[in-house]
Amino acid sequence: MNNILIQGDNIEAMKWLIDKGYKEKIDLVYIDPPFSTGSVFSIDKSGRVATISRSDDAIIAYNDTLRGEDFISFLRERVILIHELLSKHGSLYLHIDYKIGHYVKVMLDNIFGIENFRNDITRIKCNPKNFERIGYGNIKDMILFYTKGSTPIWNSPKFKACESEIEKLYNKIDKNGRRYTTVPIHAPGETNGDTAKPFKGIYPPKGRHWRCSVDELERMDADGLIEWSANGNPRKINYADEHICKKAQDIWEFKDPTKPIYPTEKNTDMLEFIVNASSNENSIVMDCFCGSGSTLMAAERNGRNWIGIDSSEVAINIVKSRKWTKEISFIQCEGITRLLNRPNKKQTGN
Ligand SMILES: C[S@@+](CC[C@H](N)C(=O)[O-])C[C@H]1O[C@@H](n2cnc3c(N)ncnc32)[C@H](O)[C@@H]1O
After folding, report:
1. N or C: which end of the chain has fewer CB within 10 A?
2. Ligand 1 mean position to 40 CA, how many Å?
């Protein structure tokens, strides 16, 4: 399929997609909607893309002026359509802030079912700030992760461990300079099969069994993967360079770009991480609040198809101006309702 970019209100766009046969065809949706900040986000006309300007010649990228229940209703209508479009192995990642996020979570539980709520991911978004107000510095926002059902696409995402963690966990160095640690070769529970037999004349300790067959232990020993202690205790050698990844937890550090091309633009590495975790090659990934297209770029770089929707002409022009390898079908929704088009005050970021 061609990738699809739609300019218009995402309600109309998603209804159009359902009409065109995309119901239950989308494996991953990431959205970073307006956060109900009461602000208007703009870009400086001077061409300085780094700043989200307060100046009078700024062009408005999008308005974020819906508040309270109006905002939740706005999002609910869209989440219902997202739920329809998601495949039975599909997932939704919804990026939101700490002020409105808990209300959004309750709304999502109602649509996806609380049993399909997987994580409230804390995303560290910036460095600690100096500030005057009463309260703690806010350096995080949240990503609510839901799956459509019990068999989602899940590619067991891992993060690369940092140097200091590797040094702590793998505190030994072998004669070739390789960093390693050792782990027991036995586990709790007695068996009377292959894993209970003696290995080099040694039986597993009482109440335990070998983690693998004695043949496998012999092979590991021949390959130099068993370390024998001074008193003859065997342990398995794990090399750091073969185990440098650790299972991803629910606190992520992916700071926002310091020179954004679009207001509140998100970190593409984070989006690539999500794309790889919850979709497969050739899956369709959708971002129906796509802004500058960072999700779409993350999808394309990883061999996924994408659908991007945004009501802002500024956003669409930025997406169009980026370098894409695959062809894009561009569609303009008729009768765009610019729902968030009530100017308020200008501000610098989410
Ligand atoms: C927070 S920004 C997304 C930024 C994006 N994640 C990025 O990395 O560039 C939210 C986007 O939602 C768009 N938007 C708001 N309401 C919309 C609607 N009803 N339909 C389509 N897009 C909408 C805005 O134009 C804006 O570009």
Report:
1. N
2. 12
In three-state secondary structure terms, 70 is helix
The DSSP output letter for 88 is E
List, in sequence order, the alpha helices (H) in the chain. 10-19, 68-85, 101-112, 163-169, 214-222, 268-278, 294-301, 313-321
- Ligand 1: atom nearest CA of 340 is 16
| Fold of the 3-157+248-347 domain | Rossmann fold (3.40.50)
DSSP assignment of 297-317 equals HHHHHTT-EEEEEES-HHHHH
Domain limits, the chain: 3-157+248-347, 163-242
Q: Is 267 in the pocket of ligand 1 (CB under 6 A)?
A: no
Average pLDDT across each block of 10 residues of the chain; the chain has 350 residues. List them in order: 94 95 98 92 66 64 91 98 98 97 98 98 93 91 98 95 88 94 94 91 94 95 95 94 88 93 94 98 97 98 98 96 95 59 42
Q: Which atom, in ligand 1's list, is nearest to the CA of 289?
A: 12
